[in-house]
Amino acid sequence: MSPIHLAVVFCVVIGALVPYSSDAQLDNSFYKDTCPNVHSIVREVVRNVSKSDPRMLGSLIRLHFHDCFVQVCL
């Protein structure tokens, strides 16, 4: 089987599985056990980055919107 055929088969399989994987939800306590200080660490990093580049806050909001708020209804 050629690499193109394998790529097409891969895309078809992934496309068939997408509807079954679209029920994922964000969990605010995901890192509770592995990194309990994650919120304060992220807050401090964002604060420091925003001091050096004020445009970064807008970029992070846009990134969060595109990654987290878009929901697909099938």
From TrEMBL:
<keyword id="KW-0575">Peroxidase</keyword>
<keyword id="KW-0408">Iron</keyword>
<keyword id="KW-0106">Calcium</keyword>
<dbReference type="InterPro" id="IPR000823">
    <property type="entry name" value="Peroxidase_pln"/>
</dbReference>
<dbReference type="GO" id="GO:0020037">
    <property type="term" value="F:heme binding"/>
</dbReference>
<dbReference type="InterPro" id="IPR010255">
    <property type="entry name" value="Haem_peroxidase_sf"/>
</dbReference>
<keyword id="KW-0349">Heme</keyword>
<feature type="binding site">
    <location>
        <position position="70"/>
    </location>
    <ligand>
        <name>Ca(2+)</name>
    </ligand>
</feature>
<feature type="signal peptide">
    <location>
        <begin position="1"/>
        <end position="24"/>
    </location>
</feature>
<protein>
    <recommendedName>
        <fullName>peroxidase</fullName>
        <ecNumber>1.11.1.7</ecNumber>
    </recommendedName>
</protein>
<feature type="domain" description="Plant heme peroxidase family profile">
    <location>
        <begin position="25"/>
        <end position="74"/>
    </location>
</feature>
<feature type="disulfide bond">
    <location>
        <begin position="68"/>
        <end position="73"/>
    </location>
</feature>
<keyword id="KW-0479">Metal-binding</keyword>
<comment type="similarity">
    <text>Belongs to the peroxidase family.</text>
</comment>
<feature type="active site" description="Proton acceptor">
    <location>
        <position position="66"/>
    </location>
</feature>
<feature type="binding site">
    <location>
        <position position="67"/>
    </location>
    <ligand>
        <name>Ca(2+)</name>
    </ligand>
</feature>
<feature type="site" description="Transition state stabilizer">
    <location>
        <position position="62"/>
    </location>
</feature>
<keyword id="KW-0732">Signal</keyword>
<dbReference type="GO" id="GO:0140825">
    <property type="term" value="F:lactoperoxidase activity"/>
</dbReference>
<dbReference type="GO" id="GO:0046872">
    <property type="term" value="F:metal ion binding"/>
</dbReference>
<dbReference type="InterPro" id="IPR002016">
    <property type="entry name" value="Haem_peroxidase"/>
</dbReference>
<dbReference type="Pfam" id="PF00141">
    <property type="entry name" value="peroxidase"/>
</dbReference>
<keyword id="KW-1015">Disulfide bond</keyword>
<keyword id="KW-0560">Oxidoreductase</keyword>
<dbReference type="GO" id="GO:0006979">
    <property type="term" value="P:response to oxidative stress"/>
</dbReference>
